[in-house]
Amino acid sequence: MKWIMLPCIIAATTLVTQLPILAQPLESSGVSAGRQVAETICGNCHEINPMISQRAKIGPRFEDIAKLPSTTAISLKAFLRSNHNRMPNFILSSADTDDVIAYILSLKRQ
């Protein structure tokens, strides 16, 4: 019984020491990559980063898109994969699409 308790205590101690790291909000690499893709591809027409004051753009701000109740990962994926009437038709890789969606959704929480 004593030998079983020791590994359990070590495992519990290890988990407790890692909790502060796990509890911290992370800007995932997807969010950061998504912001970079958005700035490169979408930045001519949309205000991408709400922290940086930018000139007036043709399209809506990404922050405004994020805060719409209808904005979800599924709705963004469907929009980004469909033809656009008022936007240039661009082709994003699946990874870039997921990253841009992660970035837009991160703006919803700000």
Q: What layout of secondary structure does this protein have?
A:
Layout: H1 2-23, H2 29-42, H3 62-66, H4 73-80, H5 94-108
Helix pairs in contact: 2-5, 4-5
Question: What does this protein look like?
Answer:
- The chain is mostly helical.
- Helix content is 58%, strand content 0%.
- The chain is built from five helices and no strands.
- α2 crosses α5.
- It is globular.
- The relative contact order is 0.16.
- The model is unreliable at 19-26 (pLDDT under 50).
Strand content: under 5%
Fraction of residues in H or I helices = 55-70%
Number of H- or I-type helical stretches: 5
By CATH reckoning, the class would read: Mainly Alpha
Low-confidence stretches: 19-26
Major β-sheet profile: none
H/E element order: HHHHH
What is the number of E strands?
0
Q: Span from first to last CA?
A: 50 Å
Shape designation: globular
Looking at how many chains there are and whether they match, the oligomeric state comes to single chain
- Tell me, rounded to a whole number, the average pLDDT: 78
**Which CATH architecture is right?**
Orthogonal Bundle
Assigned CATH superfamily: Cytochrome c-like domain
The radius of gyration over CA amounts to: 20 Å
CATH level 3 topology = Cytochrome Bc1 Complex, Chain D, domain 2
Question: Which structural class matches the secondary elements?
Answer: mainly alpha
Number of domains: 1
